[in-house]
């Protein structure tokens, strides 16, 4: 009997461990959040390139009827592009999305000279994206946004570890 009890005490933790490892995959419904498109795929559905969002979006919300959205990062994200533009993303960015237009943006800013200013709107215009900071706007070719930048190093990471600031 003692031998049988010892075998059960060894097997029970093993079985429980196996159950805990396997159960999340068994208990997840077939319509899990993994089945919905990524934030980057949603951007493409609205005619935007994926590179207007840096890598690292951990979740998003989208009200398809109104276009109201929010995208979430694990922390703030900042990086430089082409050595001239410094961009900063807050942990949550919000706004409204429609075909070719992001409006009422909150949580994305660019450094112009010495000041940080909010990017409030992005419009797709032919082969360009126009970024508005309210009083001024600038256009850039779409092909600048086919690749997602990384927090900390932008597009020039060269093996550097990406940092969330």
Automatic annotation (TrEMBL):
Keywords: Signal
Keyword Signal: yes
InterPro entries linked to this entry: At5g01610-like (IPR036758), DUF538 (IPR007493)
Gene3D superfamilies named among the record's database cross-references: At5g01610-like
Record's signal peptide: 1-27
Keyword rRNA processing: no
SUPFAM superfamilies the record matches: At5g01610-like
Descriptive protein name: DUF538 family protein
Organism: Liquidambar formosana
């Amino acid at each position: 009997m003692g031998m049988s009890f010892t075998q059960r005490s060894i097997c029970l933790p093993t079985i429980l461990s196996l159950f805990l490892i396997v159960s999340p995959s068994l208990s997840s419904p077939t319509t899990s959040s993994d089945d919905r498109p990524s934030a980057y795929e949603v951007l493409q559905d609205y005619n935007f390139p994926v590179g207007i969002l840096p890598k690292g979006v951990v979740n998003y919300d989208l009200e398809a009827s109104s276009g109201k959205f929010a995208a979430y990062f694990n922390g703030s994200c900042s990086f430089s592009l082409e050595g001239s533009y410094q961009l900063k993303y807050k942990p949550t960015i919000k706004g409204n999305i429609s075909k070719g237009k992001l409006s009422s943006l909150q949580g994305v800013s660019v450094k112009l000279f010495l000041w940080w200013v909010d990017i409030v709107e992005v419009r797709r215009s032919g082969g360009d994206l126009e970024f508005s900071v309210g009083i001024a706007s600038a256009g850039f070719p779409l092909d600048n946004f086919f690749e997602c930048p990384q927090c900390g190093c932008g597009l020039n990471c060269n093996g550097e570890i990406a940092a969330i600031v």
